[in-house]
Each structure stands twice: as C-alpha cells, then as structure tokens.
C-alpha cells in the first residue's frame, strides 16, 4: 500500500462498497445490552472508511473503536486525522501474524470489521484464527469484506511475465487474492469460517462492476494500491503504468472509448466477498464441539454397522 494521503484521495470504489455493504449488513451486528461495545477494524488504512461509515453506527455510549493496520505509516496518518474523536485509537497489527497477538487485544472485542484488506493476505486461516481470538470469549461477531476476484490481479500476473517488470514482481502470487482462481469462493470461505469455529455464518459473493472515468482516474487508483511501484525506480513509473493500461485495454479488453474518441472509460468487473459470522460463547462453543464429535462418532458407528 502506498502513501496514506494518496490512498485516501483514490479510494472511491472502496468507500462506495463499504457504505453500501454497511447499509445492508449493519443491522446484523449484535450490540451489547449495556451498549458498551468495543469494535476492532482490521486493515483500516487511512481511516476514512472506519470513521465515515463504521464509527457513526456504533451505539451511543460505545466503549471503543480501534483501527488497526500492518502499516505503521497508515496508522500514523489515521492517528493524525482522527485521534480527537472520542474513544478512538489506532494500532499497528498484522492480522496474519503467527506470533502471539498483543495481550491487551486478545478477547477484547465485541465486533471485528474489515474492508478491502483480507485479499492482501495469503494465509486466510491464520487471519481468521486471529480474528476469532480477538473476539471476546463470551462471544462476538465479525463483518469481513474483501475482493474474491478483480481484473487487477490478472494485470499483475501478465506484467510479471514481461522481461521489463518480472525482476520486480517475482512474488506476484503474494498480491493476488487467494480466492481469485477459486471455482467457488463462497463455499471455500464458508468452510474456513466453520473450521475456525465461527457459527451463524452468512457468506455472500457480490458480482459488481466499477467504471473508472478516464485514464488519470485509473492510474491514480493503481498508484494508490499497487504494491510493486515502490520497488521500481520513479523514472520508470510512467512506463509501468502505461504497460498496465495497455494490458487492461488490449489483453483484457476492458477499455471503452466514447464515440468522440476522446473519453476513455475502464470497466472493472469484480467479485466482492461479504462474510458475517459469530463467535459463540465459550459454553456454546463447548456444546457445539460436543455435538460435532457425537455426530461424528454416530456416523462412524453407523458405517461399521453397515459394513458388518
Ligand atoms: C485497500 S486498503 C483498505 C483500507 C480501508 N479498510 C478501506 O476500506 O479503505 C488495505 C489495507 O490493508 C492493510 N493490510 C494489508 N495486509 C495486512 C495485514 N496482514 N494486516 C493488517 N493490515 C493489512 C494495508 O496496509 C492497507 O492499509
Ligand atoms: C480495469 C482495472 C484492471 C481496474 C483495476 C483498478 C485497481 C487499481 C483495482 C485495485 C483493487 C484493489 C487491490 C483494491 C484494494 O486493495 O483496495
């Protein structure tokens, strides 16, 4: 991710989706009876999505809203912009960490949200386990929104094969959504949520299209999120972006030129995965596990009976 201010200026599609998803799913959150809810947002970035769309839906006397991100620069930027807001703080946190989570965060949240972050992570199971552990032992819920597929990943793949850019993109697979090539992202993610211990799972896969109005709009969005630009000498950025646009236009055929031949639009068909799930209360979880093991034993006994 590149400069927080650049990202905040070029995140229209992320903002649009966050606002739309929260309008549809906010009512699913199970707020605490005492209203003293704590929410953690994962992959908060520059903070405007958290503060403009999530912060306003918190209960009146909520206890805390914590933005988190693996990028220290993003958290410093968000801190500078929003630290005056009540009960709001920002933490550096790698949601895919295999290390121990910060002790003061484990089991500390009633709700975890994440918007346009989890497709940056290959180890989805580790991220889900960490999200599960960050929720309270007495239960909580999460709303996770990220890209299952996006043409940008196909562009990255093609660019990584070119002699010019391959030296900077040898690890391109790290930046392609782990569900981009999945035949059934919804089933795959539902299975991962179940295996992590989540219940009341609702996973939706939303087919969407975003239209980038003009070449500079597209290039600004690429500059804001493309992880390879930081590795390429500044003097070659324009060449990279031109090759990016050429692939979009000619290889993927996603450019539309208006009749007058001047205005270019770039069409981005993508699939957004939206997952809501609950972490059951400890006792409920124990009962769930007991039911699962009893059912498994019953199944084995039935199989043995049929064999004999
Ligand atoms: C596209 S931005 C999304 C920001 C904001 N949620 C929004 O919707 O505009 C993705 C963010 O995820 C962060 N990110 C990437 N990998 C992460 C990880 N392993 N743990 C936490 N944050 C991560 C990036 O640093 C970046 O700020
Ligand atoms: C036409 C086309 C290929 C558009 C894609 C533009 C673009 C830069 C999409 C970024 C998707 C992404 C990884 C967003 C994010 O993580 O916030």
TrEMBL record:
Q: Cross-referenced CDD domains, in alphabetical order?
A: AdoMet_MTases
Top-rank taxon, per record: Eukaryota
Function description: O-methyltransferase that transfers a methyl group from S-adenosyl-L-methionine (SAM) to the carboxyl group of juvenile hormone acids to produce active juvenile hormones in the corpora allata, the last step during juvenile hormone biosynthesis. Also able to methylate farnesoate to methyl farnesoate.
Name listed for the protein in its UniProt record? Juvenile hormone acid O-methyltransferase
Q: Describe the location of the Methyltransferase type domain by residue ranges.
A: 40-139
Record GO terms (molecular function): farnesoic acid O-methyltransferase activity
Q: Which gene encodes it?
A: 101893410
State the Gene Ontology BP annotations: juvenile hormone biosynthetic process; methylation
Cite the entry's keywords alphabetically: Methyltransferase, Transferase
> What family does the database annotate?
Belongs to the methyltransferase superfamily.
Entry's EC annotation: 2.1.1.325
**Which reaction is recorded as catalysed by this protein?**
juvenile hormone III carboxylate + S-adenosyl-L-methionine = juvenile hormone III + S-adenosyl-L-homocysteine; (2E,6E)-farnesoate + S-adenosyl-L-methionine = methyl (2E,6E)-farnesoate + S-adenosyl-L-homocysteine
Q: Is Transferase one of the keywords UniProt gives this record?
A: yes
Coiled coil where?
Answer: none
Return any one Pfam family short name.
Answer: Methyltransf_12
Output the InterPro entries linked to this UniProt entry: Methyltransf_12 (IPR013217), SAM-dependent_MTases_sf (IPR029063)
Q: Which EC main class describes this enzyme?
A: transferase
Q: Which organism is it from?
A: Musca domestica (House fly)
């Amino acid at each position: 991710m590149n400069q927080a201010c650049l990202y905040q200026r070029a995140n229209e599609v992320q903002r649009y989706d966050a606002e739309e998803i929260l309008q549809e799913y906010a009512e699913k959150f199970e707020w605490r009876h005492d209203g003293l809810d704590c929410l953690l947002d994962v992959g908060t970035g520059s903070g405007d999505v958290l503060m403009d769309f999530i912060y306003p839906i918190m209960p009146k006397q909520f206890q805390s809203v914590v933005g988190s991100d693996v990028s220290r620069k993003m958290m410093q930027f968000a801190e500078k912009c929003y630290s005056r807001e009540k009960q709001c703080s920002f933490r550096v946190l790698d949601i895919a960490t295999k290390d121990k989570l910060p002790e003061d965060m484990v089991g500390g949240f009633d709700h975890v949200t994440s918007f346009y972050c989890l497709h940056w992570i290959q180890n989805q199971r580790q991220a889900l386990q960490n999200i599960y552990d960050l929720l309270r032992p007495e239960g909580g819920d999460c709303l996770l929104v990220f890209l299952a597929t996006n043409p940008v990943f196909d562009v990255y793949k093609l660019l990584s094969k070119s002699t010019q850019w391959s030296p900077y993109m040898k690890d391109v697979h790290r930046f392609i959504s782990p569900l981009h090539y999945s035949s059934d992202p919804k089933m795959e993610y539902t299975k991962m949520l179940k295996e992590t211990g989540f219940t009341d799972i609702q996973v939706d896969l939303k087919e969407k299209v975003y239209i980038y109005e003009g070449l500079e709009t597209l290039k600004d969005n690429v500059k804001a999120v493309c992880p390879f630009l930081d590795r390429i000498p500044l003097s070659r950025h324009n060449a990279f972006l031109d090759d990016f646009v050429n692939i979009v236009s000619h290889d993927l055929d996603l450019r539309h030129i208006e009749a007058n031949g001047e205005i270019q639009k770039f069409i981005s068909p993508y699939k957004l995965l939206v997952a809501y799930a609950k972490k059951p209360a400890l006792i409920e979880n124990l009962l769930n596990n007991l039911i699962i093991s009893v059912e498994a034993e019953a199944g084995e006994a039935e199989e043995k009976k049929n064999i004999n």
